[in-house]
Amino acid sequence: MSASTPTPTPTPHTPIGRVLGLSVGLAAIVAVIVLAFAWPSVTAEPHDLPVAVSGPAEAVTAVTDALDKKQPDVFAFDDVADRDAAVTAIEKREVYGAIVLGDAPGAAPEVLTSSAANLSVSQLLTQVGAALETQVNAQAAAAAAAAGAPAPDHITVAVTSDVPLADTDPRGTGLTAAMFPLVMGGMIGGIAIAIAVIGAMRRVLAVVVYSAVGGVVLTGILAGWFGVLQGDFWVQSAVIALALSAIAAPITGAVALLGRAGIAVGPVIMMLFANPISGAAMPREFLPGIWGQVGQWFPPGAAANLLRDVSYFPQADASFSWLVLAGWTVGGLLLSVLGHFRTAGGAEPDALAAHEDDPVAVPA
Q1: CA distance 166 to 119
Q2: Of 8, 118, 211, 220, which residue has the fewest beta carbons closer than 10 angstroms?
Q3: What is the mean pLDDT of residues 8-36?
Q4: Is 341 exposed, middle or buried (0-12, 13-18, 19+ CB in 10 A)?
Q5: Cβ atoms of residues 233 and 226 within 8 Å
Q6: Is beta strand 97-100 parallel, antiparallel or unpaired with respect to 158-161?
Q7: What is the sign, positive or negative, of the torsion defined by CA atoms of 187, 191, 196, 201?
Q8: C-alpha distances in Å from residue 43, one per residue of 152, 154, 314
Q9: DSSP 52
Q10: Helix 200-219 and helix 319-344, axial crossing angle in degrees, nearest 10
Q11: Res 356 pLDDT > 60
C-alpha cells in the first residue's frame, strides 16, 4: 500500500485591502514622478534675466522703459559704463547679454548675446535687437520729418555673439543632454557600491576611485569624442569626478547609517527633487519663485552650472558651485565614516543582528 501524496497547501491570495493600497500607492508614485519632471517645463517663463545696458542716460531710460512695458519683469537691467564693461560682465557670467546704445556720437546701437550662457536667452535678445532696430529707425524718421529733412539712412542694430557655443555643439544640446546621464551615473555608482561593497570604509574608497576614473572617462567622451565640452581637460575631469562623488557619496553614507533604506536618497533627493530644478535644461531664472536658486545648492544644479563655467566662462566666479559639490561629497563620506564607527562600536547591536544577513548593513 503506497503512502498517500500530501495535498499541497494553496498559496493564500493577497488581501483586497493590500491590493488596493498597493495600486493607489503606485499611482501616486507615478504622479509624483510626472509632476517632478513636467512641472518645471510647464511653468517655465523668463523673469529677471540679468542684462547689461550702457549709453546716454536718456536713451537707456527710453529703451528699458519700452522693454519693461512690452515684456514686464522679463529683464533685470544692470547699468554699465560702456561696451567693454558689458563684455566683461558677459564673460564673467554676471549677465546673459547687453544692450549698447552708442558709446560714441552717431554710433548705432548694438545687442550683445551669449549663446554659451543659454541659447533661449540669446534668441530672446536677438528679438530685442530686431525690435530696437525698428524703434530707432522710427524715431530717426520722425525726427527728420519734424525738421523737414530727407529721410535718414536705415540704421542697423548689430547683434553680436560675445561668447558663442562651440561649432561641435552649436545648439548646446550636447552639454544639456550630458547632465541627465551624469546624475544617473552618480546614482547608479552610489547604489551599486552600497549594495556590492561590504564595509563602510571600503565604500568610501570605492566612491573615490569610481568618481576619479569616471571623471576621466566621461570627459574623454564628452570633450574628446563629442566635443561638447571646451577648455582644460583635467579641470573638466575634476568637475565631473566631483559631481559623481557628490551624488554617490550621500547614498553610500545614508546606507551606512540606515541600511538599505538609505538607497532612497538617490532617487528621491537627487532625481525627483534636485534634477528638475537644476537649471540644466533651462536658465534658473525660468523656474518659478526661488526654485532656480534652491536648485544650485544641490549637486545636479551645481554640476550643470560649473561645467558651463569651466567650458565657456573661465573668468566667471565658480567658487560657489565648487563648494556645493565638495560639501555634498565630504558630507556623504563623513556619513560613511560615522556609520562605520557606530556599527564597529556596537552602538546599535539590535539593528546589526536584524541585518546580519544583509551585506549592505555589514560594518567595515
Answers
A1: 12
A2: 8
A3: 80
A4: middle
A5: no
A6: unpaired
A7: positive
A8: 44, 40, 32
A9: E
A10: 150
A11: no
Report the alpha-carbon distance of residue 250 to residue 246 in Å, rounded: 7
| Average pLDDT for 171-183 | 87
| CA 141 to chain CA mean position, Å | 46
What type of residue sits at position 297? Answer: W
CB 44 within 8 A of CB 282: yes
β strands within the chain, DSSP E: 49-54, 75-79, 97-100, 110-113, 158-161
Q: What does each C-alpha distance from 249 to 246, 273, 322, 328, 339 come to in angstroms? A: 6, 17, 16, 8, 13
CA distance 19 to 28: 14
d(CA 125, CA 129): 6
* 136: helix, strand or coil: helix
Q: Report the alpha-carbon distance of residue 242 to residue 247 in Å, rounded.
A: 9
**Residues, the chain, total?**
364
Tell me the average pLDDT across 240-249: 96
Residue 110 DSSP code:
E
The whole-model pTM stands at 0.84
pLDDT at 358: 47
Contacts of 8 (CB under 8 A, 6+ apart): none
Question: SS3 sequence, 143-164?
Answer: HHHHCCCCCCCCCCCEEEECCC
* Interacting residues of 21 by C-beta distance below 8 A, sequence separation 6+: none
DSSP string spanning 271-333? IIIITTTSSSSS-GGGSSTTHHHHHTTSHHHHHHHHHHHHHH-TTS--HHHHHHHHHHHHHHH
Q: 156: alpha, beta or left, given left = phi > 0 and alpha = psi -120 to 50?
A: beta
In this structure, which amino acid lies at residue 111? Answer: V
